Each structure stands twice: as C-alpha cells, then as structure tokens.
Amino acid sequence: xxxxxxxxxxxxxxxxxxxxxxxxxxxxxxxxxxxxxxxxxxxxxxxxxxxxxxxxxxxxxxxxxxxxxxxxxxxxxxxxxxxxxxxxxxxxxxxxxxxxxxxxxxxxxxxxxxxxxxxxxxxxxxxxxxxxxxxxxxxxxxxxxxxxxxxxxxxxxxxxxxxxxxxxxxxxxxxxxxxxxxxxxxxxxxxxxxxxxxxxxxxxxxxxxxxxxxxxxxxxxxxxxxxxxxxxxxxxxxxxxxxxxxxxxxxxxxxxxxxxxxxxxxxx
Length: 268
What we know:
The chain has helices at about 5-40, 55-60, 65-85, 90-100, 105-120, 125-140, 145-160, 170-180, 190-205, 210-230, 250-265, and strands at about 235-240, 240-245. It is mostly helical.
C-alpha cells in the first residue's frame, strides 16, 4: 500500500523533468531563428497616439502643465530615438503643434524648437527654418517681455537660419530682422550693450551706409557702459545725429529710436 504513492510521485517527477528538458531544447533551437527574424524587422512608420491640437486641451481634463511636460519629454525621447536609428521623424510637427497649442507660454519650447526642426533626422531644410521662425514669432507675441525669447529669436533668424536658406535676398532680410530683434532682449544695461553690438555688427554688412550706424552704435554702447559704472548719471544716446538725455527708465525708448535709425540707414 505504501509503495503506490511513491511510484506515483516518481512518475510525476519524471514527467516534470521531461517537460522541462523538452522546453529547454525547444528554446535552444528556436531562439536563434526568432532572434534573426526579429533583427531583420525594422520599424518604418510611427503611430501618433494623441488627438488633434484642438481637442487635446479637453483631453487633458485640466492638467495642462503636466500634460505639456509629458508631451515635451515624449518629443525629446522620440527625436533622439529617430536620430539613433537614422529614421525620419515625420510626426515632429504634430508634436510641436500639440505642445504649442496646449501651452503657448511653455518657454523651453521656444528655446529648442529651432534645434528640433533644423536638425531633425535625417536633416533639416529651408522649410524647417521657416517653420521654426513661425513658432518663435508666436513666442515673442505671447511672451513679449521675456528677454530670453527675444534673444533666441534674434540669434536664430540673424545667425543660424540664413545658413539653411538658398536665396541671398532672403538671407539678408533675415539677418536684418534678427539684428533688429536683438535690440529688445532685456532690461539690464549689459544685455542691451551686447545686443546693440551684435545687431550693429550684423547690420554693418548690409550696405555702404551701415558704418554710420556702427559708429553711432559704438558711442551708444560706450555711454551705456559708462552709465553702468556711474550709477547716478543718466545715459546719453545718439540717434539720427541728435543728442538726447535719457534716464535709466527710458532705455526702451532709446532702443526703439536706435532701431528705427539703423533700419533707415540700412535701407538706403
């Protein structure tokens, strides 16, 4: 009576061992074949899982900031993945439209949108540069008092974007617009001096009358620097050949006057 259960247990153990051995042999034989087939398959199309921008805000149920962060992280990961796999990224503009419509004041978007477009996998072109400018111009409209957005906008259209353009007239127009944009970058006098110097250096190559703008600019920069050293004295600016005394709070008016003068000089 006692030998029957032992025999049954032995048969069960033997069956389990045989099943395990068969599984190991099966995996050993099938795994290399499946691995080769898996490596041979390459993903060619992406699946964009998010709703259109007009409906995305409602789909977030009010969690706009969190949803923007998730979309932004997803975009960066996808952009890097496509670069690593040497695959085009056709859904890039969909991600950008979704993020920009979801939260137009999302500052990191304007800091990196030109890089994401112009250096998209496998490479960017003139249309990507124009699209980046459109996004950045939205940024200066919704964030008109953010110096970083103005700085990035001016640097992009004045220095980086022209290298993607093919028409010389368009290149010169973009450089001029970038130079003018750089004069609006911020309230600090050091930032203003840097912006004026960069802008005038760009305008200097625009025509025969630009050296006049350059000489005026150098005097403005010198006076702003002197004012930063002597905080109790007002800055003095020269525009269109006329002297005018300005207080520290009138710096914006100085730059508007200087921008108009440089625009007029470069146009003639």
